[in-house]
Amino acid sequence: MPIDPERAIGADLGEVTFAWTPSDVLLYHLALGAGSNPVDPKELRYAYERELRVLPTFATVAANLRTFEPPAVRMPGVDIDLAKVVHGTQAVTVHRPIPVEGKAVARTRIVDVQDKGKAAVVLNETTVHDADGNPLWTAQSSIFARGEGGFGGKRGTSDKIELPGREPDETIITATLPQQALLYRLCGDRNPLHADPEFARAAGFDVPILHGLCTYGIVAKAVTDAMLDADVTRVKSFSARFAGIVLPGETLRTQVWQDGSRLLVRTSTVERDAPALSDAVLTTA
């Protein structure tokens, strides 16, 4: 079905009530590789309930932890084959530290639909409040749908982040596991692109690829650990563009530039020297 931007833009995608427990938080952190050094007190903040803290990127999975079916890309004015879709961008802003256990209500709307010619980009915004109506976080995301452009919509603007013309203040090397995608999918993203070799080949990839949101969380944790002494409560927001794929088992190279309260971030794979995250910014409280 062709995309109908007039019907899609501004559409309310409804309200979802959800809850999470410390076990959910622990699973999410472990799916990002937390606890690789199980005697490091900083790692145990992620992997042991005694002093558990919540990495703000948990917001990307909190509402979908009980999802056991592959996602469908069907919204008002939008109906896209899942095999054509990859994650485009992701941003999370927390309004206070996420509690280790809670109940919340999320409401999502379509902010924009952009026509890139050979592809379409659909941008959503989700606002989340706790059971008492207090704001918890706001998330923005976009999906990139290959072959779905040409419907006559606006192209949209660029959000490119200019990096300083100097060496990074920090370079972080982070390993991923060969089974990383199989672990991460237990957090609610059951897209077969990340587990099924046959589906991945049909989508144009040689093998299943790592979830973009898994890379997003791994990098957020790595930067928080290296630059903020693993204090997740100092993270106000994290935004990034998915610039390329990561294969499970590859090593990530993350470069960080300090810019006042902003940490400018770029991540690539070591083995292929290929981009993974670009235009990424972590802001501190």
TrEMBL record:
Coiled coil: none annotated. One of its GO terms (biological process) is fatty acid beta-oxidation. InterPro entries: HotDog_dom_sf, MaoC-like_dom, MFE-2_N. Pfam families: MaoC_dehydratas, MFE-2_hydrat-2_N. It comes from the Bacteria. Residues 164-274 form the MaoC-like domain. Signal peptide: none annotated. Residues 18-147 form the Peroxisomal multifunctional enzyme type 2-like N-terminal domain. One of its GO terms (molecular function) is (3S)-3-hydroxyacyl-CoA dehydrogenase (NAD+) activity. Belongs to the enoyl-CoA hydratase/isomerase family. This is 3-alpha,7-alpha, 12-alpha-trihydroxy-5-beta-cholest-24-enoyl-CoA hydratase.
